[in-house]
Design a protein that fits this description.
This protein is mainly alpha-helical. It contains 3 helices and no strands. It is globular.
Length: 79
């Protein structure tokens, strides 16, 4: 994916969130976007927080899911 395609994706995704997502999802997305350029070690935690907020928005429980439990489903090594 080119840099331009990635930027276009983020812009489109952000527009959709503005209309459809709960405040918690928007806040989690905003935090991720603000920290994404900082080589932050919190990036994976921020993505996990987006997933958690989306699950909650859809009415799913996050009870019993440890920190980074969701993002670890996509990674080969546990972080």
């Amino acid at each position: 994916m080119s840099q331009q395609e990635l930027e276009d994706y983020f812009i489109d995704f952000s527009k959709k969130l503005t209309l459809w997502a709960s405040p918690e999802v928007i806040i989690a997305w905003s935090k991720f976007r603000n920290n994404a350029n900082n080589d932050s070690t919190d990036t994976l935690s921020n993505v996990d927080n987006i997933y958690r907020a989306m699950r909650k928005d859809l009415g799913n429980s996050n009870k019993g899911l440890n920190n980074k439990a969701i993002i670890n489903l996509y990674l080969n090594e546990q972080v």
